[in-house]
Specification:
This protein is of the alpha+beta class. It is built from twelve helices and six strands. The chain has three domains: 118 residues, Beta Barrel (Elongation Factor Tu (Ef-tu), domain 3); 103 residues, no CATH class; 209 residues, no CATH class.
């Protein structure tokens, strides 16, 4: 630091004290990382608090800077250079307090000064601020300056436009600083330059914009919509996007995504209940398998369920590709849920089956009756009515037995069909049908989001 200013250590200490005195409790918004894109340094958060984010806004993500790319529903898209430090499902804190953001930037600048990590341009500017150097100016050719400016204001405009680095204008309230800024902006725009106007408060920026005569020029006001004054709110990005012809489609897809997420929460809860029922059914299948194997019937041919996908022409754009993937994912999710529904139906069929003890008791009784049939027939010559009664009872028992066998057969055929389908999906014998169904729907939702993102990019 000594090569810049001997008194700089005292200056940085005072600035540190100022930073600590001005810090405010952070506006903490809790979120969860649900998507990471390391190639583009972007991530998607699922946040638990509604907030008026806007594209381009700077936030603190776990005390590091991040830039808002987009915000819809509970989803916040951020650009974050330290994305490699994050993992999926990680819980994070987002701080949106503008004062804390400015103080954090100032804090890091002080650290660079103390550690002598400033580049040459910043060292040169620091010398200007500590009065160890003087800014350089090039003569500017200004044809016209608003006549209502006094001499000092006109001089401030000329020097600002001629400065190679920057020109600092200092004055108490009421001396016309805002008027000078408006004239500088007007001069730059007339020269075909792009101008960025920033200020410590939103009202200061709006005050400058309200009195600027920029008819026919493209003006974009960045900031939280709730903090932009009404006379210039139409210049905000959030308002200007609404004029795009495809904005209605973006809103429609946004609503679809929100409705899908709400439905997904209910579906996940219901699917968990279904999964518990399926687990119970699977545990009971082993017992019924022993019963069916004792019947020693022919194995039925399995009829595989095939899902065919309609042929699609080669897509001409990314949107067509996503639309195709959305259709395929929907068919996949429907297939998963169809299998789950069949398993539930199998459980209902199982509930109609007699228990094993009843089946074995009837089988044993039927064998005894059939073994007595010859003896009963011999004695029937003396009492035919009793033999007919015995025959009716035997037929009734045999009919009940056959109905049981048919029921077991129907159950086991359905079971084998489903087992064959599950074997195709899970060759190793392990799998979570309901979980995969939910994941398929989540994938489908991601394609919806990608479609929405592409539409926003087009807009």
């Amino acid at each position: 630091m000594s090569d810049i200013c001997p008194d700089l250590e005292d200056i940085t200490r005072k600035i540190r004290d100022y930073i600590e005195s001005q810090r405010r409790p952070s506006t903490q918004i809790k979120g969860e990382v649900v998507e990471l894109n390391p190639l583009q340094n972007t991530l998607r958060l699922l946040i638990k608090k509604n907030y008026d984010f806007y594209p381009g806004a700077l936030v603190l993500l776990d005390e590091d800077f991040a830039t808002v790319m987009d915000y819809y529903g509970p989803h916040l898209i951020l650009n974050y250079k330290k994305i490699h430090t994050l993992t999926l499902n990680q819980k994070v804190i987002v701080d949106t307090d503008s004062i804390n953001l400015i103080l954090e930037k100032l804090q890091r600048t002080i650290e660079k000064i103390e550690e002598n990590r400033l580049n040459e341009d910043n060292k040169r500017i620091l010398k200007f601020l500590t009065k160890k150097g003087r800014p350089q100016y090039d003569p500017s050719d200004i044809n016209y300056i608003a006549p209502h400016l006094n001499n000092r204001q006109q001089d401030a405009v000329k020097k600002s436009l001629a400065a190679n680095d920057f020109h600092l204008i200092i004055g108490p309230p009421g001396t016309g600083k805002t008027t000078v800024i408006r004239e500088i902006v007007h001069q730059k725009v007339q020269s075909g330059d792009r101008v960025l106007v920033t200020a410590w408060t939103n009202s200061s920026v709006d005050n400058i914009l309200e009195k600027l005569d920029l008819v026919g020029e493209r003006v974009l006001r960045l900031g939280s919509l709730s903090e932009i004054s009404r006379p210039v709110r139409h210049l905000a990005l959030q308002e200007q996007r609404k004029k795009h012809p495809q904005w209605a489609q973006v809103i429609e897809w946004d609503e679809k995504i929100q409705n899908t997420f709400r439905a997904m929460k209910d579906q996940v809860s219901e699917d968990k209940k279904i999964q518990k029922q399926i687990n119970v059914l699977r545990s009971q299948i082993f017992n019924f398998r022993n019963i069916i194997y004792r019947l020693n019937h022919e194995k039925k041919e399995l009829i595989p369920v095939k899902t065919t996908y309609p042929h699609q022409d080669n897509p001409e754009s990314e949107i067509l590709i996503i639309e195709k993937e959305m259709r395929l994912k929907k068919e996949e999710a429907d297939h998963y849920h169809q299998l789950a529904g069949h398993i539930l139906e199998l459980g209902e069929l199982e509930g109609e089956l007699p228990d094993g003890d009843t089946f074995y008791a009837l089988e044993a009784e039927l064998k005894k009756l059939k073994s007595k049939k010859v003896i009963k027939k011999v004695y029937s010559i003396f009492n035919s009515s009793k033999y007919q009664e015995f025959e009716r009872e035997l037929q009734k028992k045999d009919k009940s037995y056959q109905e049981m066998v048919t029921t077991y057969q129907g159950y086991w055929e359905a079971h084998d069909l489903l087992e064959g389908e599950l074997g195709k999906l899970y060759p190793q014998g392990e799998g979570d049908l309901i979980g995969d169904a939910v994941n398929s729907q989540l994938d489908l939702l991601k394609f919806h989001e990608s479609f929405l993102d592409l539409k926003k990019v087009e807009i």
